[in-house]
Amino acid sequence: MSEIMRDSNNPILTINDVTPSMDGIEVVGVFNPAACKFQDEYILVVRVAEMCIQTEGWFKIPIMNFTGERPQLEIKSWKQGEINLSDPRKFWAGPYRYLSSISHLRLARSTDGVHFTFSDNPFMFADLTNEAFGVEDARITQIGDTCYLTYTAVSINSFGVSLAGTVDFQTVQRYGMILAPENKDSCLFPEKINGKYVALHRPSSDNFGRPSVWYCESPDLLHWGNHSCLLAPYENQWERQKIGVGPQPLKTSDGWLVMYHGCGDDSVYSLHLCLLDLNDPRKVLKRTSEPVFVPETDWEKNGFFPNVVFCNGWIREPDDRVLIYYGAADSCICVAETTVNDLMGFLDRGKSKR
Asked: For the segment 298-311, what is each residue's pLDDT rounded down to a tens digit?
């Protein structure tokens, strides 16, 4: 029987493990980490969400202001009752949508893959105008000597996919937005295929269909084309709202192993798998018809946004064990262990072709 085993140390990182990036705000979530092994360390690139410390009668949010010589944190305020906060993550104020928090990316390091320590300072903070509402949900793919990060850049003008790279996890080079709004949930394949870089991504869809996983190609990692829809949500309780790709695909002898998340009834997030052809990843060979991982524990069911397991980071060990790092309820980080064979077993047991 295929299985994914939660670690007994879960949750491995919480808001109590990280200090706020500045005075006047508080950390409300550490979640959705990218993951890789770099030299002798396990490294997570963690999304850290911060909110203003609220005062009675008002609701305040932090955003970055780029009108001066250097970006500065600005606080916007509304009287309580002027805005609808039924979704704790976002709200409308007049013609614009805002986020209740601002996110940055911070490193956490470990020697064993379970016990992590946060860096004192952000690794990537909002630095460009299209990041005024924060940077979120990175994925890591190493190509050559560079670890590339695809991440979501958010501003009042919506959200798109941006690219950055690092060779040492000390400095980072930003390449800017590579997939225009509205787009997110993007990962790179770890090698060229037929001479092209390949990525998966998730454009939004409000008028036709539902948000789905798309395929695209690039000659240089900056200019992307040949877009095509790869996976659309199943009409079931687990995927009915939308789906989005997770961490970088794992290469196996049978194909590219891809993990993706589904959002279904009651906005429950679960994890799913598919297998893509090695030479033409636009071909879906197998796909699970039911989730392989669902919210079960208290910290997965209760938190800032409840009933969420969301993975955009996994690490394949030399012995083919796979460590799955995931955000739980948009609040904390957990890890689970499985093997490549077990993941393939899920596909063989509950496979369904698109």
From this structure: 999 999 999 999 99
Handedness of CA 250, 260, 293, 345 (dihedral sign): negative
**Strands of the 213-218 sheet, one edge to the other:** 183-188, 197-203, 213-218, 225-231
List all residues 6 or more positions away from 183 whose beta carbon is below 8 Å from its beta carbon: 159, 160, 161, 201, 202, 203, 204
Sequential DSSP letters for 186-235: EEE-SS-BTTBEEEEEEE--SSSS---EEEEEESSSSS-EEEEEEE---S
> Is the CB of residue 187 less than 8 Å from the CB of residue 312?
yes
The whole-angstrom separation of Cα 259 and Cα 330 is 18
Is there a cis peptide before residue 300, judged by omega within 30 degrees of 0? no
pLDDT at 352: 47
17 phi and psi angles, rounded to 5 deg: -95, 0
Its pTM surpasses 0.85: yes
Taken in order of first residue, the domains within the chain and their CATH numbers are 5-349 (2.115.10.20)
Return the amino acid letter for 177: M
Q: Mean pLDDT over residues 309-320, rounded?
A: 97
For β-strands 197-203 and 183-188, DSSP reports them as antiparallel
Task: Dihedral sign for Cα 212, 217, 223, 227, please.
Answer: negative
Q: Render pLDDT for 116-158 as a digit per residue (tens, 0 to 9).
A: 999 999 999 999 999 999 999 999 999 999 999 999 999 999 9
